[in-house]
Amino acid sequence: MSSTKQQAPWVRLQIHRPARIVLMTMDGIGDSWLMHQIASSASPPTKAQHRDVTDVWTYKLELPQISITSIDAENTGMYIKAKSHWQNLVRGNSDGIMFLTNGLEVDPERGFNSEIFMLKELVSDLKETERSVLLVLVDHADQEGARSVGLIEQRIREVLIEHNRGSQCFTVLPVNAETGEGLWTALDWS
């Protein structure tokens, strides 16, 4: 269903209210950067709401066309304590799911396992996400030693098929957290 050359999946969101999106980040990367990039480009520019205390969510951003709530999906300790809260947050924001991951092998022992676990727990296992579009953003994809976007795409496809979600709309795209390159292409809703 996916191809890095296909149009972003957001065109499937034919809704007449702000799209409710959940942003899951791994390795503590990018949610602040991503939310602030989107907020500063809004008209008029706005700010993302930040929660200082570790809770179910980290950032919230409310714009006329989109509402984004981020969670630190790498925080498995918090997930174990608050699994039902995280699942309810995803259920309530399931028009689309953005998943931001690091293309570099941060921990070769772990590999892509945490991402796959969270994809299963917070997407595949929830009936409410059956029709959700899934956008996987890969930071550092252009750096030497990074996991290829194609490999990540293949692994996600396998996991979705394993969990009877083979027809779920998804795409995997590279982004650069320092320059913002690739972000606006990925978030093109037209």
Write up this protein:
The protein is of the alpha/beta class and about 190 residues long. It is built from 6 helices and 7 strands; from the N terminus they run E-H-E-E-E-H-H-E-H-E-H-E-H. The longest helix has 14 residues, at about 150-160.
Total domain modules: 1
Distance between the amino and carboxyl termini: 19 Å
CATH fold-level assignment: Rossmann fold
Overall, the morphology is globular
Largest sheet: 7 strands, mixed
| Rounded average pLDDT | 78
CATH architecture: 3-Layer(aba) Sandwich
**In CATH, what is the homologous superfamily?**
P-loop containing nucleotide triphosphate hydrolases
Radius of gyration: 15 Å
Which structural class do you get from the secondary structure elements? alpha/beta
Unreliable residue runs: 1-9
The number of strands is 7
Count of runs of 4 or more consecutive helical residues: 6
CATH class: Alpha Beta
- H-E order: EHEEEHHEHEHEH
Proportion of residues in extended strands? 15-25%
As laid out across the biggest beta sheet, the strand order is 2-3-4-1-5-6-7
Q: Please, what is the oligomeric state?
A: single chain
Helix content: 25-40%
Protein name: ADP-ribosylation factor 1
InterPro entries: P-loop_NTPase
